[in-house]
Amino acid sequence: MAARNLRIDPQRLWDMHMAMAEIGPGIAGGNNRQTVTAEDRAGRDLFKTWCEAAGLTVTVDRMGNMFARRSGRDDSLAPVMAGSHLDTQPTGGRFDGITGVLSALEAVHTMNDLGIQTERPIEIVNWTNEEGARFGPPMMGSAVFAGLIDEAKAYATEDSDGVTFGEALSAIDYQGEAPAVARPIHAMFEVHIEQGPFLEAEGKAIGVVTGVQAMRWYKARTLGEARHAGTTPPAARKDALTAAARLLLALDAIMQKRGMDGRVTVGMLQAYPGSPNVCPDRVEFTVDMRNPETDELNAMDREFRKAAEDLYSETGCGVEIEESWFSPPIAFDADCVAAVRRGAEANGHAWREIMSGAGHDAVNVNKVAPAAMIFIPCADGISHNEAEYASPEAVAAGADVLLAAMLEAAGTVD
Ligand SMILES: [Zn+2]
After folding, report:
1. Using 50, 70 and 90 to split pLDDT, how confident is the model at 414?
2. 348: CA distance to ligand 1 center in Å?
3. Is 358 exposed, middle or buried (0-12, 13-18, 19+ CB in 10 A)?
4. Is 30 left (phi over 0), alpha (psi -120 to 50) or beta?
């Protein structure tokens, strides 16, 4: 069927955002509503109240994932799912994740207002622990659901105080009965702020997300010689930190030459033995490398290793590179992506295709069911920061497109 151009209620959607933001306020206008805390519980309770007021039936699985269901004409059909996550980083914003959950709820409100009955049931989802700030890894609830992590392993994960995820979940009364395992889902849609600058810079209201870029993580170390800082002349030094600095600049060049497509980040670095008057003999650092294309990511890998060899011949400092994680590029379901594109066009919103630079719950769901994402612009691309902001118009556009995609996938009864 053709995509619909029904409009959601922007004010109602915005008011839900602001009411949710009052729960677990941060210190700078954002939120600290970390997963399975008292604040998370209060946010979940509010969401549940809203869902029940909209006539939905809320169930919770053993991971605390919440599903709010609206019956379809044929309830035996696989549902169309939409949602994201309500948890935040310790210094998180009011939109990351929240917009995806509340846009789905607003879409259902609009269906209710217009008396629309869908062929398939609709389910709004709030995935547990997307952020991974308190318990790692991130996207934990959807990962267990998709069979990518064992429930027992997730339950045993400890926070920095030694509290396990399982203990914390049962303490907030959100450990449900239903197993957290995938079941038939017809399609899943997730609205999310872009968390990058492109949509805003190009004046596009909607990012039709086609997939997620390939990522590779490394643990690397440069190896020199520990020598006296004052007595060792320049020619006799093998300073592992100076060598690491050169390698970091080489990595930056590997990123820069790829224009908009490459990403290289060294987020952690430690020098040893760690004394003010000793030349470091060892420096350990992480490297996070990303590219939309696996071939290009492989080329970046080769250039990194070549730079390490060159460094050895120039400085005598060896480099050890250990790959710790690889995630191939992910392509979202072509039909779901097309439904998002038609939704943007039907609503007259300027759009572009875009690859996600970050992981999301929809990526995990995409392993077990057709899925796609809708990005909306956020101010200056800032996220994981209390200053994170998306305008009421931006939020409304995402929900309009979500509604169209959901109705197309679920089918309507006329
Ligand atoms: Zn998020």
Report:
1. confident
2. 26
3. middle
4. beta
Ligand 1: distance of its center to the CA of 360 in Å? Answer: 6
For the domain 10-212+329-413, what is the CATH code?
A: 3.40.630.10
Q: What is the distance in A from the centroid of ligand 1 to the CA of 97?
A: 4
pLDDT in tens, 377-401: 999 999 999 999 999 999 999 999 9
pTM over 0.90, yes/no: no
* Packing angle, helices 294-315 and 240-256, rounded to 10: 150
pLDDT band, residue 201 (cuts 50/70/90): very high
Q: In CATH, which of 3.10.340.11, 3.40.50.620, 3.20.20.380, 3.30.70.360 is domain 214-327?
A: 3.30.70.360
Other beta carbons within 10 angstroms of residue 156's beta carbon come to: 12
User: How many A from CA of 384 to the centre of ligand 1?
Assistant: 9
Nearest to 385 by CA among 92, 19, 179, 104: 92
